[in-house]
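Suppose a colleague, Dr. K., hands you the sequence of a protein chain of 167 amino acids and asks what its three-dimensional shape might be. Before reaching for any lab equipment, you can write down a predicted structure in token form. Begin with the sequence itself:
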Amino acid sequence: MSDGEPTPSPALRASDAERERTATLLRDHAAAGRLTPEELDERLDAAYTARTVGELEALARDLPAATGAPGAGRRRALDRPGARERALHAVGLVVLVNVACNAIWLATGADGSWWPKWVLLATVLRLAFQLWALLGPGASGAARDEARLGRGGVRPRELPREPGDER
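The predicted structure, expressed as tokens, is then:
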């Protein structure tokens, strides 16, 4: 249940994060075919109502350890540090721009064709590429940093120095 952390005493009260970690573990095992949908529902109910760490550990006692499960080292895309916030900001920007364009179109009489459709198309395509870069399968480590930093992914302070360069 832990990732290199010391195992807490079974009698200790469980936190919401520990309940969620156990629920994620149970879902992963269900996806691997180790639990039926009914068993998963029962165990998820028990996980979310568990009071102690021992109750949570008992729910996964008959399942293989997390280190042996395929993909156990991978984290869900939105669980990556800052990923959820960046995704929400990107979606929020698209919504804001499109609402503003539609408001302008309506305020100017809504005559002629609905021109905000082109803004919608462009912003949704850009959003799709942003989310793929942020949450897609290749969005780990350097690829994510490059997407965040821009072309080349190099911060100015990381540029190689010339001999005798006094910065």
